[in-house]
Amino acid sequence: MTSPEYLKSIHPAWMPLRGSKTLAVGIIAAALVCVTPIAAAPPFPGADAFIQKNCVSCHSSLAPAARLDLTKLAYEPSNPDNFATWVKVHDRVSAAEMPPRAMPRPPADSVAQFVKGLSAALTAYERGVTTERGRAGLRRLNAYEYENAVRDFLNVPWVQIKSKLPQDGEAWRYNKIGTALDVSYVQPPFGHPSEHRRCSKPSMPMAT
Questions:
Q1: Per residue in 139-156, pLDDT tens?
Q2: What is the DSSP string of 114-161?
Q3: What contacts 175, CB < 8 A, 6 or more positions away?
Q4: Does position 169 have pLDDT exceeding 90, yes or no?
Q5: Residue 185, Cα to own-chain centre: how many angstroms?
């Protein structure tokens, strides 16, 4: 067995542990605290109680209806998909579509309180984002806009480069939605800046 004197001679800062059982218990307890998952905060106080009472019978991890498990749905409004899901929950409950007609209806005041609280949480987040960033989102120019920009900037209104650019993505049949107009720095076919430079390069000699 290695003696404390030998260990101290190797490293002067070494000190024998006192109360090792107490220390071990403390370390184990701290580890359990670290690995124990923290429950996600609900959209507003009381939302989890309403959901547990009226929603989890269908929307739980066993066989979630519409593939929506409300027991695992965190409130993360900065995630657009998460925000849209909570908006859908609000709209379905507000329209009396959920809980379904075959299920017992919760009291009207309980439904009103849930809808009001969820609406306030969603609206407060949107208001904060609008105050911080404004209503308009950032996006790149689509092919049509880029062609017009080159024409105006270089004073070459006859230049046609739109057909040489990669096809723009669409969302809800619009090609001016930021989430669809991605910019890839790896794959040139998906809006890589080098593609725009390559297509606009022939226009440079014609500029006046």
A1: 888 989 999 999 999 898
A2: HHHHHHHHHHHHHHHHHHHH-SSPP----HHHHHHHHHHHHT-TT---
A3: 142, 144, 168, 169, 181
A4: no
A5: 22
